[in-house]
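Budget justification, computational time. The allocation requested in the original proposal was used primarily to generate structure tokens for proteins on the priority list. As evidence of use, we reproduce two of the resulting records. The first is shown immediately below.
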Amino acid sequence: MSITVRKYRSSDEPDMIRIWNEVVEDGIAFPQEEMLDEATGREFFAGQSCCKVAEDDAGAVLGLYILHPNNVGRCGHICNASYAVSRDCRGVHIGEQLVKDCLAEGKRLGFRIMQFNAVVASNIHARHLYERLGFVQLGTIPGGFRMKDGHYEDICPYYHEL
């Protein structure tokens, strides 16, 4: 299966909303608790500095990323991103292609650093991917993430120079 990462189109929004909501519903990675609907999804994705999708040869959207500033003003050169891959497509390196494209896009947009504020410590697949791609863990924030079942897990901030 060949995967292409490209800028999203409005016709992709229903799939993007579905995939994003799968991750929110899982309750183990994204801080958001509210599901996106057609209106909030359109606004959310349009409000990013960059948003791209991963699609297969048949044009099916399998995942996506959002990229935006992590802060403003004197810290505006630092960006942040989130990645979502469809439940049915996890484990086949779509996330890796999204992260690599996102790093290049962040640099192209003039950001100097990509920072992830809250990678859940138990999200070992994401952590291994980020570390393999050169991200550096900044430490651990004990109990920084409330899981869907209500217990708290540590979070690990990461950064990568662009």
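The second record produced under the same allocation is shown here.
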Amino acid sequence: MFGAFSCFWGTVALHLAEPGIGLGAREAGLLGLTGLVGVLMASPIGRIGDRCGTSLPVGIGSAASLLAYLVFLASGGSVPGLVAGAVVLDLGNQFGQVSNMARVQALGDGIRSRTDTIFMFSYFLGGSAGSAFGAMAFGAFGWSGTCVLGGSMALLALLIHVLHSKSARRGR
């Protein structure tokens, strides 16, 4: 999920600078303010996970990330579409990160430092891959290539979540 998130944020400034849009670093930075929605929602997302378990919020997060890329594609990469999609993408990322971190924390107090380390290493490895491959997709195929890649990453996260959830239900 963080790969899909980083795919967008690693390339959006390049897209904004394209001749059809012609915006610069200041506008890309202002787009980053959409992240405030996710910051404000972190605590409510955590409460949802406390009440419902972590599976539902992870599913919501994966689906929201995929929806964000559909918004980016459907809007043709327009600024309003970028703003709307960025809010949805950030919310999706928050749902996933908060809930997955809760899963890791629940593995046990005695191993918490190790599981936190593995989680954060994996999380940022995915983010790095999203940024790197996103830049390559943008260079080769433009904004639509970035959207297809990021959407594919979000879809993969959703599919893994669904398969994991089915497997967990069968194991009960």
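A brief technical remark on that second record: The radius of gyration is 17 Å.
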